[in-house]
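Kindly go through the entry underneath: sequence plus fold tokens. Please state briefly how this chain folds according to its tokens.
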Amino acid sequence: MITIYDIAQKTGYSAATVSKVFNGYSDVSEKTRRKILDTAAELGYIPNGHARSLTTKRSWTIGVLYIEPSGAGILHPFFGGVIEGFKQVATAKGYDLMFLSKDIGGREHGYLEHCKIRGIDGVVVILPDATDPYYEELLNASLPCVLLDQQSMVKSTVYSDNVEGSRQAVKYLYGLGHRHIAHLGGGPTFAGGQRLAGYMEAMQELGLPVLPKHIVQASYDYTVESGEAAMEELLRARERPTAVVAAGDNLAVGAMRAIKRHGLRVPEDISLVGFDDIQMARYLTPALTTIRQNTYALGSRAADMLIYSIEDGETVQSDIIPVKLVVRESCCAI
């Protein structure tokens, strides 16, 4: 059986230092921590979780609360990159992940009660539903918690620069000569509101008219079907836009279907910009110009914030992750 003494001998560090790494002490440099963890993985060392929990008074388990209304669940394009970034950081620091729900053994519990039952050290909330009373209960508890795609004064938050992303999209279309630019919104969500705000800011800065009929809110679930329905409504406007900024790539895919069904072409008749840069975007015909979110960075930063809070950090943190315009084939000059 591999022990901490084997790891100490191979790395050249003391057994006490190796023990500190596996017990989550913060007075070890990241370089030292990384070398010890890599060596442990190479040797096949499995730490004694029970002993570690007794020493640190932690379960070394992080709860993942993922609220996704479209029905896609963990297959949603946003989730994969976020959870991979989160998992890489969390597991490197010795934490396991557990998905949370309101149902345990056939009985409904709140998220906070679930955390207490499982002895969870902290929670990351992805796409929180501000209308859920169980979420509100979790938000007001003392349990360490980090929120993605939400703002809060009491819990740490991390989200993409949604405002700047929409601004980049509008300004790119303006540079191609477009002056009648519409917006397919993401409904009453935090990200949807920010992306609409960025669109409005850019339109006003450029002196472009914002027609009420050129702002259509799709369903908050960001599905292809809701994007298709919203584009149908937009195409009924008396003055058809020459370009559309969609608040999500799935919405843009639906918009593209509606445009083609009306005998129109993308980008020759209507240019189209999405938001997210999901994997499908590059394989569409035409390939979708979009705003890329760095989902891996969102997840890894959320993990850093949450572990900081679990390890007695007291500062409420907030971070905004930059986005990038990815130019493909769905826009053209007029």
The radius of gyration is 23 Å.
